Each structure stands twice: as structure tokens, then as C-alpha cells.
Amino acid sequence: QVQLVESGGGSVQAGGSLTLSCAASRYIYTQNCMGWFRQAPGKEREGVAAIWPDNGLPIYVDSVKGRFTISQDNAKTTMYLQMNSLKPEDTAMYYCAATRGSRFCGRWYEYAHWGRGTQVTVSS
Q: Which run of H or of E encompasses 123?
């Protein structure tokens, strides 16, 4: 069973930074795309960033480009989302996710495994 465990959420003021972490087994990271999603109240869940399993290349949605950085540790057991210059519109529950064998990391509908989420709140 795939287990993804997020941590690092919290409350910050606009312009601040947070780093989210997602812990999982190394097998998960090497066999699947890994990504971060978010869901704000009253809105649909959206993909934010993803990372290719083979080369670690990142994918970002336009709204976070230049502000968020996705990465993984060398052991490939933890994924991070460094979030800088946070805005109130970044407020959401953030979820770590993995595909089920797919390596089409930009296809957000391919993500089938989910963590429980960690809340990020940005105040103005």
C-alpha cells in the first residue's frame, strides 16, 4: 500500500515562505511521477508542481512559476515543495500525490495515490 505523508504546512503572512515535505518509500519515488496538488475552499483540486522520476526535472503551473520549487532528496524518500513569496491566493490544503506507474507527470489526472494533506494559510 502506498503511503504518502505530508508535513510542513502552517500560517504565514503574504511574502513569507514555507517548505512542505512528503515522505514515502524509495520505490514510490523511482517508479512514479510525484507531485503536489492543492485545493482551496470551494475550488477544485489543482496540480501545482511535479517531478520526473528519472531525472528530477520539475513541472510547474504558471501561477507558481518562479515562486515554488519542487525537489527530492538524494535517497529519493522525501519530496519537498519550497514556497516563497506566498500570496493569500496560495491558501489551500496541499496534497502530495503519486501516479500509479505513469510517467506522464504533467497529466494531473494520472495521479492516483494521495496523502492526507497539510494546510497552508497565507494572510494579507
A: strand 118-123
Task: Give CA–CA dist 114/124, Å, rounded.
Answer: 29
Query: Three-state SS string across 22-78, please?
Result: EECCHHHHHHCCEEEEEECCCCCCEEEEEECCCCCCEEECHHHCCCEEEEECCCCCE
Burial of 35 (0-12, 13-18, 19+ CB in 10 A): buried
Model confidence at 102, in pLDDT bands (50, 70, 90)? Answer: confident
All three cell numbers of 64: 507558481
What pLDDT shows up at residue 45? 97
% of the chain surpassing 90 pLDDT: 77
Which residue would you say has higher pLDDT here, 9 or 75?
9
Q: How far apart are CA 112 and CA 33, in angstroms?
A: 10
